[in-house]
Design a protein that fits this description.
About 50% of the residues lie in helices and about 10% in strands. The chain is an alpha/beta fold. Strands 1, 2, 3, 4, 5 and 6 form a 6-stranded parallel β-sheet that branches. The protein is elongated and about 115 Å long. Bound molecules: 2-acetamido-2-deoxy-beta-D-glucopyranose (6 copies). This is Sulfotransferase.
Length: about 350
């Protein structure tokens, strides 16, 4: 027994041997440091989580109540609650806003269509915002412009500000849409922008309108100032008195090219939520406007415009070299353009 105790003591003595004690001390220091580190970390984590909690709560408080329970789930990506930097949506902060873009070509009735839309108390359609080159020069300036429009920070006479339920603009195919279509479609799909295609079936009539309009603008202003849209039958008469000559040699290829461009646009944007509207259908049947209002989920209203159609009646009266044009298109797939009105 005494021996055992002796050995035990000896052992402990050996452990306490001064030679080995630095190792033990180091171990103790390391363990202490680890415990301290863990403690500091745990405090940090606690502070971070206690900081983010109120933020998260704020987020819930400001955003959640705006979602309308009556909206079907499919529509949620297309209902937005913008927070403009330049003003406060005030009592309309929780009215959902739809984002749209009218994709069209010049002289296809988009000006008229836009005045109809803007006669709705809750629609802001801001015109051809990409007619300025510096806004469409590269994709980053395009996206920046889009952000401002859809954040309701874009000011035009059409802005309804607080109580807009649909906000958009019109975009001509020759204003950067086709060049940058991939990034634009991606933006539309991520931000939930709906596309309204507005095309004209009768491309020959469109051609007459283009030629007459550019004649009035560049060659001879019929009544002192250039007018691309008119508000009285007399003005329309003045403008339609000019009869353009259509190049019948290039007519077929010109029409084909217009058709191909429109089809390409439809193809590029087919993955976006979209509706196709034809100018001729709008003229014939105003209830097409109901479809558009439904598409934008707007409260239904009667829409009005003061614009007057410029070229009325048979095309034969509006084209100088009608016989040439008639002969060129007779028997082709464009023959119907000769006789269809509007
Ligand atoms: C895009 O265009 C804008 C305006 O024209 C210009 O200020 C900017 O530097 C351009 N950005 C790029 C990436 O080219
Ligand atoms: C439409 O505008 C009116 C008047 O500004 C507003 O009272 C109404 O709430 C708006 N409707 C929608 C759906 O935003
Ligand atoms: C021509 O312009 C004048 C003044 O700008 C206007 O009073 C008149 O109605 C216009 N006439 C037509 C036919 O456009
Ligand atoms: C008509 O089009 C043809 C083919 O594109 C072209 O060679 C000709 O110069 C054009 N004529 C006029 C008057 O513009
Ligand atoms: C007008 O359009 C509506 C809706 O698009 C359609 O239901 C109706 O049949 C059309 N009416 C005529 C006369 O074409
Ligand atoms: C086009 O020309 C044909 C004869 O070549 C004629 O029968 C037809 O009435 C003309 N069409 C129009 C719309 O003038």
């Amino acid at each position: 027994m005494a021996e055992d105790i002796f050995f035990f003591i000896k052992d402990t003595l050996i452990i306490k041997n001064p030679k080995k004690s630095p190792v033990l001390l180091r171990m103790i220091v390391i363990v202490f440091a680890m415990v301290c580190g863990l403690y500091i970390c745990s405090i940090c984590v606690k502070q971070i989580s206690s900081q983010t909690k109120p933020k998260f709560l704020n987020f819930e408080v400001t955003v959640r109540p705006c979602h309308d329970c009556n909206i079907d789930r499919y529509q949620i990506p297309y209902s937005h609650y913008p927070k403009p930097e330049t003003f406060n949506r005030a009592e309309c902060a929780c009215n959902p806003v739809r984002f749209f873009a009218i994709i069209s070509m010049q002289r296809s009735g988009s000006g008229w269509f836009e005045t109809l839309l803007n006669s709705h108390i809750n629609v802001s359609s801001n015109g051809e915002i990409f007619s300025l080159k510096e806004r469409r020069g590269n994709i980053s300036s395009i996206l920046k412009t889009l952000d401002r429009v859809y954040n309701l920070d874009w000011y035009t006479s059409a802005s309804k500000n607080q109580c807009s339920a649909a906000v958009g603009f019109k975009w001509m195919l020759n204003q950067g849409v086709m060049e940058h279509h991939e990034k634009i479609v991606e933006y539309f799909n991520v931000r939930g922008v709906s596309t309204i295609f507005l095309f004209r079936r009768n491309l020959l009539r469109r051609m007459v309108s283009v030629l007459a309009n550019s004649y009035d603008r560049y060659a001879k202003q019929l009544n002192g100032t250039h007018k691309s849209h008119v508000h009285s039958p007399e003005e329309a008469d003045t403008l339609s008195r000019y009869k353009p000559t259509i190049n019948s040699t290039s007519l077929m290829t010109d029409l084909k090219q217009l058709e191909v461009t429109a089809l390409k646009a439809l193809e590029y944007f087919s993955s976006t939520r979209h509706i196709i509207v034809y100018y001729e259908d709008l003229i014939k049947n105003h209830s097409k406007l109901v479809d558009v209002q439904e598409f934008l989920r707007l409260p239904r209203m009667d829409l009005t415009s003061r614009q007057v159609k410029i070229h009325k009646g048979p095309l034969a009266e509006h084209i100088k070299n009608w016989e040439d044009v008639n002969k060129t298109l007779m028997g082709t797939s464009y023959e119907s353009f000769l006789s269809i009105d509007y």
